[in-house]
Give the backbone structure.
Amino acid sequence: HRFIDPEYAEVSVRMRNRRNPGEVFDQLRELGLIRLHADSDELRENLATSRLDAKAITVASNDEAARLNDRIRDERTRAGVVDDTTTTTGNDGLSIGSGDIIQTRQNRTELGVANRQQWIVQHVEQDGSLWVWEAHSNRKRENSIHLPAEYVREHTHLSYAATAYGVQGVTVPASHTVLSEQMSGAAIYVGMTRGRETNTLHIVAEDMAEARQQFIEAME
């Protein structure tokens, strides 16, 4: 029920069941949802320079997420979307400024935040604390939430890209999933079912035949 395209909804069920992954890949290709890249650097640059508001990016590991988050943030700062004047640092060691998208990693009812919840940074205080609002809320009026500096340092990080655990439960207009040797079939399914409108699979491969084989191996 999440997807606008009923044909893609049918593909998502087949992806969940993990039967005949080659046929699933062929359907994704016919729908224009497979994107090939010459190498990892090209893939990272492509994602970083794309407009990424209201999108989710799923990768295989936290290290991969941190590398991509750093590059995406750099591009958003250059474009003026993120203000780098006053910043603090999350538990990934990366800077956080106004306009950044972050994720909280510890439930704290007194703060009004939950584990793996995503937020948009409104303001960074001089002491390193943050004022944020929920990234994917449908409410017309959002109340700002204050995150103390200690919580920010220990329990938040940038969240443009995340593992399947990090994006699980998120629904956005468009989703991007980066296939690598470390990614499982379950993680592919999670990443490729976050987007209501489009779900694109990115693969480093010389041609579609190689990409198809990578997809099959991951799904199996």
User: Anything to note?
Assistant: The longest strand covers residues 195-204.
